[in-house]
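Amino acid chain:
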Amino acid sequence: MRSSGLVLFACAGLLLSGGAILGGSTAFTLLRMSYYFWTTDLGVELGAIVLFIAGAFLCLPSCWLATLAPYHSKSVSILATLMLLVTTSILLLSTGMSAITGLSKAVREPGALNASMLRAMAHESVDPAVRTAFSAMQIELKCCGVQSYADWYQHRRVLPPSCCGRLLNGKNGEQCTNPMHTGGCLRPALNEIRMFINSVCVLASAIIIVMASTLFTAAYTLVSNALERKESRALKIAQPLRIACLHPTIPAPDMQQSVANVPITPQI
């Protein structure tokens, strides 16, 4: 019981730190990437990242239950709840890792992402959402166009202000003619996606290993507690049985002598 409690305490610390890092970093990256990738065909794949965030946040109550279960009076119900939370979190993280294969496919086959970005670029002049997404992507990734800045000349006469590192044109109405960064955004975007996939998969795999250890330890503790309680009930010492023995009282010798000296008067 004591050794399993120490293992659960160690797993609780790992779950707290790992869940906070995975949930916080994934949420921040999702908000930053989805801002300029949601106009492409990666919207569904990016939406699947929510599974990682949900699985990571389940580590927080699991951590609390893991530290509370070994020494609480209601350890059976707490251990059962802990096992349920850990199993749910493992399923969410595993499903997220399966769903993230769509992003890895975009890295292996960049032609689909290239075509999707070019289609979105064609609507930049009429769609404010696409214009804002490209502006954020070009400023954030320090790029211009898809393959190069020349891609913009297929849809407009001048370059957008974001190619010169600003959101709007100059105060005097000056337009962007010489881009600050001549390289396209496709390669930096693929590097961003690749780095995100690698970091999320490594963190999720480590947390799944810790959760599997927590689940095994919780099940072992639950079974051990049940066996210990059963043995303690079987070895419980029974109360001694007291039996009352009734027997005739024998008079003392003095009383017998006094009774023998008493004359017996005959009854007429």
The radius of gyration is 39 Å. The longest helix spans residues 186-234. The chain has a mean pLDDT of 79. The chain has ten helices and no strands.
